[in-house]
Design goal:
Layout: H1 3-6, E1 15-19, H2 23-29, H3 34-55, E2 59-66, H4 74-98, E3 100-105, H5 113-126, E4 132-140, H6 142-158, H7 169-173, E5 186-189, E6 208-211, H8 221-232
Parallel strand pairs: 1-2, 1-5, 2-4, 3-4, 5-6
Helix pairs in contact: 2-3, 3-4, 4-5
The structure holds farnesyl diphosphate.
Farnesyl diphosphate binds next to α2, α3, β2 and α4.
Length: 250
């Protein structure tokens, strides 16, 4: 590992991942139905996509719907799926204008047909853009992703494509959903919770974690800038030691 990669994180992150939490509480505080919290949350998604462009952040991964979220009341799930489709309809021009590529990680096949169709079309139309990537984790679970990778590897071993002795961290990572995307440098969770909630379990191994009590619908440019500032002040050691400080830990 180079001295450069052990140095303090004084530059901006390349990849930011976000657990967008607190929509329900935001709505409850205002005596509104939960769906209104999700709608306000969609505004924060717009704001953060723009903020990433302004901060030169190339990858933004948003945990928009987990495999566990299917257990929510039917009405809320339907509301979220409708919101996602409308968001894509309204925000597609922004992706073209800013040359941002849309990608999905998760079990796209679980989503309603119309939503799948809309997302697939936008992914195809933006596939050639290179200014940044907006990655939506949808019907996503970290354990599901890891188990799927393990199954693919087992199939390749069975088919004689891979030898068991070839399977190391690098080969394993190549079988995850988006192997070309670098691991997140920074993971933000809003609403004060301190859990990973099955999000990017493999990829977050060395991410800096940042939590804020701000509820997702209130998480706009100033809150995002504060998270980036906090990241820039961190020392990233990746299990090594900084050249000038002996004895540092993980
Ligand atoms: C968690 O808040 C949020 C979600 C499960 C959904 C995230 C969805 C959005 C931000 C809406 C739009 C997204 C896109 C990509 C258009 P919660 O409902 O668990 O809040 P609570 O913990 O306060 O109840």
């Amino acid at each position: 590992m180079s001295a450069k990669s052990l140095a303090g994180a004084s530059s901006n992150p390349v990849h930011v991942a976000v657990i967008m939490d607190g929509n329900g509480r935001w709505a409850r505080e205002r005596g509104l139905p939960r769906g209104k919290g999700h709608e306000a949350g969609a505004e924060s998604v717009r704001a953060v996509v723009r903020a990433c462009r302004d901060h030169g952040i190339r990858y933004l991964t948003l945990y928009a719907f987990s495999v566990e979220n299917w257990r929510r009341p039917r009405e809320e799930v339907q509301g979220l799926m409708g919101l996602l489709r409308r968001f894509m309809e309204h925000e597609e021009p922004l992706l073209h204008e800013q040359q941002i590529r849309l990608r999905i990680m998760g079990r796209l096949e679980d989503l309603p047909r119309l939503v799948q169709k809309k997302l697939t079309r936008v992914m195809e139309k933006t596939a050639h853009y290179d200014a940044g990537q907006l990655i939506l984790a949808l019907s996503y679970g970290g354990r599901t992703e890891i188990a799927t990778a393990a199954r693919r590897i087992a199939e390749e071993v069975r088919d004689g494509v891979l030898d068991p002795s070839d399977v190391d961290e690098k080969v394993f990572a190549q079988h995850l959903y988006l192997p070309d995307v670098p691991d997140p440098d920074l993971m933000i969770r809003t609403s004060g919770e301190m859990r990973l909630s099955n999000f990017l379990l493999w990829q977050l191994s060395y991410a800096e974690l940042y939590t804020t009590p701000v509820l997702w619908p209130d998480f706009r440019e100033p809150a995002f800038a504060a998270a980036i500032d906090a990241y820039r002040s961190r020392s990233r050691r990746f299990g090594g030691v900084l050249p000038e400080t002996e004895g540092a830990g993980c």
